[in-house]
Amino acid sequence: MGIIFDEKEKTFTLHTEHTTYQMQVDRYGFLLHLYYGKTAQGCMDYLLTYADHGFSGNPYDAGMDRTYSMDALPQEFPTLGTGDYRTVACIIKNADGSFACDFRYESHSIREGKYALQGLPAVYAGKNEAQTLEIVLSDHASGVKAQLLYGVLPELDIITRSVRILNAGEGSITLEKLAPACLDFVTGKFDFITFYGRHAMERNFQRIPIAHGISKIGSFRGASSHQYNPAVIVAERSATEDAGQCYALAFVYSGSFQSEAQRDQFDQTRVLMGLQEEMFSYCLKAGEEFAAPEVIMSYSSEGLAPLSQNLHRCMRTHLCRGKYRDVRRPILINSWEAAYFDFTGEALLKLAAEAADLGMEMFVLDDGWFGNRDNDLKALGDWQVNEKKLGCTLGELIAGINGMGLKFGLWIEPEMVNEDSNLYREHPDWVLAIPKRKPVRSRYQLVLDFSRKDVVDYVFGQICGVLDQGNIEYIKWDMNRSLSDIFSAQTDCQGKVLYDYVLGVYDFLERLVKRYPDLLIEGCCGGGGRFDAGMLYYTPQIWCSDNTDAADRVRIQYGTSFVYPVSAAGSHVSASPNHQTGRKTPLHTRGVVAMSGTFGYELNLGMLTAEEKDEIRAQIKSYCAYADLIQKGLYYRLSCPSEDEVGAWMFVSEDKSEALVCAVSLAQHANMPANYVRLKGLKENTAYREAAGGKIYNSTALMETGIALKGAECEYQAYQMHFVECCHF
Ligand code: GLA
Fold first, then answer.
1. What is the per-residue pLDDT across 674-693, written as a single tens digit (0 to 9) for each?
2. Annotated catalytic residue, options 612, 628, 715, 725
């Protein structure tokens, strides 16, 4: 059984296949955190210590006991107002203006299956695959209740957490801070692993010690952001890819967020993941409630590789949905880097014909097909097909492309508007703007107020009007600026807007998914500015970055791999020299890198030589052969591309009978020593044949010493080796 309540000890114990999580209702009704780690049995409240600490206050109920303090005890859902002076998970402003909340245990229930969250994305599971624990805490003085939700998915080694705040009191309250996940550690030295970046260089790996003070990452851009990703890892200082304790917290949310890591005065560690505090001030009238998005948690005692694999499995099979969840996605050609805004219908058909000839499977028409959108200054919001530019109707264009044996996909950016658009001219009041202030522009565009249902309804109608014009099997949902000027005319509580905006986006996406169940949606936000677990619930793949340079992509995809499955990472072969960096890389390298994602092409195929075309045909053939292994295999990082001279990673089938090793040489010197890459995850002392060369290798030697990469003949040379288990040496 996944969840056990021990009546005598008042403990809740959550077991997954390899992990245990335990908490306890203590003598005063506080919900204390006892343990999260490797499977363990019995009550672990002996881990708690009590001491008289100066300037750490004591709850009134503790009487004259100066050793009992919330300032030092590990907790499940610490609030401001109990004498805990660390950073807390919840701050509530009461009707009387005070900031205080003292949650104590009220009741609990355990049920089969995983809870769902109305209007929010969440991990899902069959009735037999998960259990839900709901613990109700209440604050006696205000009547406010917190319903803590825990989803336990034993086979996946995943525990999810969410919280619902219910204002069961009489006056209005305001939520000033809410983090659905808090992890308190009474001992240990940890690192905080986060993924920072910028537009076109997302999810760089950073590992810093959790020191005294608070380390905080987050976004108040309205989207999860390029700058920090809403997923963090807490790793024992000595933890590596293959050893040591580590914990992941991935927020299933696509808006502003924050994660904090604090080492306190007693050398204890607290880590929080939740909503951002800036501009979040959510009013709840009497009787109203607020549901926070959930956090996916996982633990590994064997290092970062299995931790990532747990997250990959969970997101791929219990968060992503729809027809394309488990199948290889169509290999696409995207028109953006092939033609940008500069195309005609005829040119598109030509590009499609070349793509079909090379073996591609879907044509995606990117930006520039609607209104008078010939550049990025205008027409966002005018979702009418520019038939003049296409020289035909959209239906005719699609029929032409379908006739070549290709599926058809389309780019949209529903949340945005240019001032130079009919939509803005008709509804200037639909954008986020603060009265009497001029809004901040970004990429010449403003943001539609998606916290308003009427705005969402209107745009939804317009987009459906386009999608109904032909056989559209894919859309790329883009979002090309950060939010600012947070003000909505529809509410008198402006502190709700950023959150309600995200709910508006989710509502739109959910309606889309319901109305077009077979549609494949790829998320995008100027590349990977909204690459998060929340979006994956609606869009099983997300454009990883606007940077398509293969060498930079090795680093971007490396950072992405810590949390997100390869099947989620949109990745294309583009032109060389690369349009973002000017770097030249071999076509083979671009292919190897793009294959470690949802594979596609994004370049003018008409410019290719006959040899390059043959090479692309061969790439497509290999991708089809390896796709299952790549998308569903266990992913191992074999190097750290920001430190090592080679970027290397591999995929191993669940039964370990085959593996695909990929590497890219990132530095070129004269008279170079050989680069050795140590493989991982193979069966011990087993013979594996490398398919291309036919040579047979001992797997233990491959894992202990490695395989030498033949000296690179040019910069950024890539290597791809397919190993298959064979019966003899
Ligand atoms: C964003 C996307 C690109 C492309 C352009 C179109 O930058 O990330 O892939 O779609 O918008 O304007």
1. 999 999 999 999 999 999 99
2. 612
